[in-house]
Write a structure and sequence with these properties.
Distance between the termini: 22 Å
Structural class: alpha+beta
CATH topology of one domain: Cyclin A, domain 1
Subcellular location: Cytoplasm, Cytosol
Keywords: Calcium, Cytoplasm, GTPase activation, Metal-binding, Repeat
Helix content: 40-55%
CATH superfamily of one domain: Ypt/Rab-GAP domain of gyp1p, domain 3
Largest sheet: 8 strands, antiparallel
Protein name: TBC1 domain family member 8B
Radius of gyration: 37 Å
InterPro entries: EF-hand-dom_pair, EF_Hand_1_Ca_BS, EF_hand_dom, GRAM, PH-like_dom_sf, Rab-GAP-TBC_dom, Rab-GAP_TBC_sf
GO molecular function: calcium ion binding; GTPase activator activity
Strand order of the largest sheet: 9-8-7-6-12-11-10-23
Number of helices: 45
Shape: globular
Strand content: 5-15%
Amino acid sequence: MWLKPEEILLKNAFKLWVTEKDNEYFVLQRRRGYGEGGGGLTGLLVGTLDTVLDSTSKVAPFRILHHTPDSQVYWSIACGVTKEEIYQHWDWLQQNIMRTLSVFDSSEDITSFVQGKIRGLIAEEGKSSLVLEDDPEKFREALLRFEKWFELPPEEKLVTYYSCSYWKGKVPCQGWLYLSTNFLCFYSYLLGAEVKLVISWDEIWRLEKTSNVLLTESIHVLAHGEDHYFSMLLHLNETFVIMEQLANYSIKRLFDKEAFQREPALCDPLQITKRGLEAHAKSEQFRTFFRLPKEENLLEVHESFLWVPFSHFNTLGKICLSENYLCFASQDGSQCHVIIPMREVVNVEKPDSSTRALTVCVRGKRALRFSEVRDYQRLSNTIRSRCGISASPLHSASLEVSVSHSSTTLRTTQRIKAVSTEALMTVFHPQDVENLDPKMLKEKMKEQSWNIHFSEYGRGTSMFFTRKTRDLIVRGVPEALRGELWMLFSGAVNDMATHPGYYTELVEQSLGTSTLATDEIERDLHRSLPEHPAFQSDTGISALRRVLTAYAYRNPKIGYCQAMNILTSVLLLYAKEEEAFWLLVAVCERMLPDYFNRRIIGALVDQAVFEDLIRENLPQLVEHMTDLSFFSSVSLSWFLTLFISVLPIESAVNVVDCFFYDGIKAILQLGLAVLDYNMEALISCHDDAEAVTILNKFFDSVTNKDSPLPPTVQQASVGNNDKTSHFNVDISELIREAYEVQGSREFTEEKQTLCHTDAGGYNQIRVVSQEVRFSASQLDELYNLFKRQHFLSCYWTINSPALLHHDPSLAYLEQYQLGFQQFSILFFLLEPWAFCTTKSTLSLWVFRLIDENQDGLVNFKEFCCALDTLYSNSFTNKLKFLFKLHLPPGESSSLSDSDTPEEQLQWLQSRFYLTFIGRGKVDLQAYLKQWQNEILKKEETIKDLPRINQTQFIQFSKTLYNIFHGDPEEESLYRAVAHVTSLLLRMEEVGRRLQEPSSPAETSKSAHVSGEESSAEDASTTPESSDTSSPHNSQDAASDLTEVEWSFSFEQVLASLLNEPAIVGFFERPVDIQTKLAQAKAAQLKPKTHK
């Protein structure tokens, strides 16, 4: 690697460098301790310095220096990890520089010329790859170390690096942490002790910031059951954010097959940068805080003061600007923030230069004044341009938006006939204005409080959110305002405003579709709040069906998940049908990401956080119940349904109010309050069943004394019907306690955790273990190798087939599958015959044979069953497997072993694409039938195998020769194969003579065959001639015996081979499976395996 020229006064300080080559202008040196001789104690000290000190000249084992004869100053111009690399640089200097230097007169001119050339080479190299890095020169040095130490494929993109300590047991190892697109790596070398760690992001189960007595602050990584701690980080928070971003990116890209098409910084895994990840993290935090659509990105941040009219003072905070929104959040503890959609802005007044202020006018005759903005003029122009407002204070923009919106509304009015336009609660429980009972009076008082709040703080999308807003939420939202406020707090109001007519189009497009999701929706429709009158009629059921089906059509990755029906039912009670749809979008895609899918990873993450909160806030409960996994299983329904499934509906809606304002934090707080309330009862219980009973009785006793709903609408509480029940808990009191007591405690929002568990992997291992002889640990290692090989096809490509054709609705056994290229690499690493010379042909035949459904993909079960046969099965079964390789579909007539790898791959891809296109919608019944057939499938006997013809038998013999090639007993094995071949041919000839009348022609033909047999036997006895003689004999046999077709049964082949002890001993030789797995794991990521 060429280096920016740096001056070196002493070319061999402390004797750390050894000169390998030199001439008049350049010196090539080797670092002492590398290469020949090792260097003894000096080598150990040098290695330690190389690791601890951050300098490439101290790390690279080879370097080239430039000097002139009349100067004592040397310049470092190149370094290299290997001798080959540094010699390439040396040769280039000899060929391109040395001749030119002779024309210069002075040493200064020579040095300037060399330095200019080297800088030009560096600039040319860094044009594409290093231009986005903060410090390209230092990053080049780190990249050199990264490539040298970890030997990952050259496509792997280093993102950033940090100096830190890695705790191996109780001993810290000082070294370097490298974060790349797909791997977390650490390297340390201290006095001869080398520590090297490589963990792929998809293997990480947990990632969190921790602190204890020994480690004040550290990052904890849990991977494959092993704990890893990294401390002494100068920028711990920055490091953790980058690690979290990379881990989440890996999981979304590899497990969820997300392509990040709308995010340029993440769409190409080969171009990921630290700057891009940091920008993505800030945008993600920005969208989460202000509940904005996922298309928005944080573009600008400005510190400023905002005049708050209801408090009559300026509050300090930050202006955050995105493509379509202007947001402000205070930083002085007032908890005030406001969201201004650009579509609502009607004018930006001329900035005031004296106070560096600008005033933004929005609809409803409201204005927001920002002062002390450093770049106020540019911000004002930016807002104007994004809103399409000219410098003159006209309200044309507002008029244009109104006209546009009106025309869009007129266009979509005709298509809304089938869509319900009223909330179900207003249809099935209209409010009686003349009713003056205490509950209705209290409801009117709540409405009045909110109306006063609206008059002070604004109403609609530009309303101020303050601490007073939260207080009103905790007291309870009036029934009449619930839908409006849910839309506002969730951000769904913005989604609906920017997508007019979108829901109606979805309903029309999804109408009549039949998928696995629609089948599940139909099954669950009548289980959604069945006691509520709205869902005892076709009106409510039809609305629920339309919303769920439209969402499944919009987001096929999620489709439909249980618990979505319960949540949507409650949304339909208080919001119009289209509003309920956008609320569902907000919950599933923004507020509870990764909750409603097959892995429910989002719920698992929040349950892990919930367990940590229990440990911190409820220590008495932890002492009694050491296994907190009980609370995880119990609380899963709390998180998935927002307590709707466990609380009466009139109480649950108050929880949903808090959730839409505070997000998942409200659910965590309420969960802690529920456990705290039942602390004594839970401590006294003896088993899990008793604890579940206690919690169920508690939830049944929760009431809402202020609810104006009639008894026909309210759910009947089981606890209230129990005569022994003598207490009731009001939901408002419970929520208030949750906010006051639990909310006052420090919530671990900074202690974010990433929890990834591969439940599908455990299921696969459990299913496969019943059919193979591998131990549980061996199967686990095999599964990890198989999964990694699947991911290797996705690591360094943007549009890999595995990503493009991922089908999340497939059974878990088919979630990870290998195409032929990936299969052949893994089979090459794991096959038992280390000396096989025709690996590509053999792997192709094995691939065709075990690909039972002929779709060009092999799943984990098929792969393990094939390896189990070759590793641990009997001689008969191993031979039967090889025999079947030479029958269709193993040895397919449409492909021959003479085809090039490109032709073989093209054929397999065509088979795969045809199968994928023809598959259409997933048929659950077809999968069930397939599994049933596998269960009932009878064991295949040797009599069921078809006979092998002459061409296939000749190829079978060639395969045996190739398998035995290079074996210590190769000579005797070749003789045995030749003897068996000759014997079988004689047996076939004798059998034909007994069945057919003899003739002179046949006699002469048989003599010719006998002569050929003897020649084949002689030719096969020498290993050198086996590869050439076998094809020659095959061609002769095929040409001379065209008139007489002969074939063999498997029983004949088996009986003949059983008489050869050398062959039987070869196939019954035990295979060291553990060593094979360890070698495969070490070699899987080596660059040579991916060429």
